[in-house]
Amino acid sequence: MSEHTSTPSTPSPTRVSARLAAIAESATLAVDAKAKALKAAGRPVIGFGAGEPDFPTPQYIVDAAVAAAQDPVNHRYSPAKGLPVLREAIAAKTLRDSGYEISPDQVLVTNGGKQAVYQAFAAIIDPGDEVLLPAPYWTTYPEAIALAGGRTVEVVAGSDQDYLVTVEQLEAARTPRTKALLFCSPSNPTGAVYSPEQTAAIGRWAHEHGVWVITDEIYEHLVYDDAVFTPVLRAVPELADTTIVLNGVAKTYAMTGWRVGWMVGPNDVIKAATNLQSHLTSNVANVSQRAALAAVSGDLSAVATMREAFDERRRTMVSMLREIDGVEVPTPRGAFYAYPNVEGVLGRTIRGRTPQTSAELAALILEEAEVAVVPGEAFGPSGYLRLSYALGTEDMVEGIRRIQELLA
Fold this sequence. Notes:
Layout: H1 18-21, H2 27-40, E1 46-47, H3 59-69, H4 84-98, E2 107-110, H5 112-124, E3 130-135, H6 140-147, E4 151-156, H7 167-173, E5 178-184, H8 196-208, E6 212-216, H9 232-235, E7 243-248, E8 261-264, H10 267-280, H11 286-297, H12 301-321, E9 337-338, H13 358-369, E10 371-372, E11 374-375, E12 385-388, H14 393-407
Parallel strand pairs: 1-10, 3-4, 3-5, 5-6, 6-7
Antiparallel strand pairs: 2-8, 7-8, 9-12, 11-12
Helix pairs in contact: 3-11, 4-11, 5-6, 5-10, 12-14
Keywords: Aminotransferase, Pyridoxal phosphate, Transferase
Organism: Oceanitalea stevensii
Family: Belongs to the class-I pyridoxal-phosphate-dependent aminotransferase family.
């Protein structure tokens, strides 16, 4: 027998860990990347994929960053928890905008809102714990839950409910393993906003049953019509010991690329998350933190200007989408997304193809109309599309006109 003859052995371990191999790529970022690649190749693609304001960051914030870059104090490590002056400003901003007091010690500054999401679940979820996740949901939540060892329990509210779950639905989904509820209002991806009464009812339910609330408030300043943003902790103050608040400067101040978010919570949770961050990334870039300080310390006039533009686009987008036969659009009252139900279009033959799912329909729209939208599968059930109206009005109108023409 040749010395090179192989003999049976134990199977070789997989190259990528099971934990990371199970993570799905961010669907919204994938759609945005594909649209940008096609555009770079000369195709006239219009992208509705990214949840990113198309406005530049306000100049006073940029100026603060430029000054910070020139100050050698910002060229060194700083506390993993965040610059003390920024944590104090976030506490002051919380009182101003949300109407309740927190200590700067309860604030952890993170590399964007996504790190805050991940660390919130990592801080309180043990293997086997269940997290109630109202669907449609932002695509990152279930992945962060899984990485913490938790199990996502979807609670679905369709377009017939304006994408708002009820206390009765949450109670029906609760089990002895339920540890937390993810609450996002105003919502990405649907633009739905819970009323003060609905928010208070859900908060009281969570408190009664000892369920933690992780509340994502990053779209707090983007509400329209008669909708109002209701902070869970203002509605139900007694939840303070079992609530983690997630927020950041990205959406409010058009600062998605600066990567500054934060989490607010009970001291023991924030200490645990800070320990994790000290090993994971340590401090957020000091120049970005100084820019965020200028943002949260300033007034909200730049935000008001952007919100007016978003509101005008929202009305245009909704009215144009409603002209398409088979498309149903609940009125989005927050954030900068419309979330049409397209079940009435599925099964229809369009240019020789018959899409049966919203993923197939989104692929067809990209190939035939050169318009990038995100299918409902990225956010839960099939049968929906997410379109961001955080893009220029001219592109937005042209993009929807192309979809109208394709689906006519």
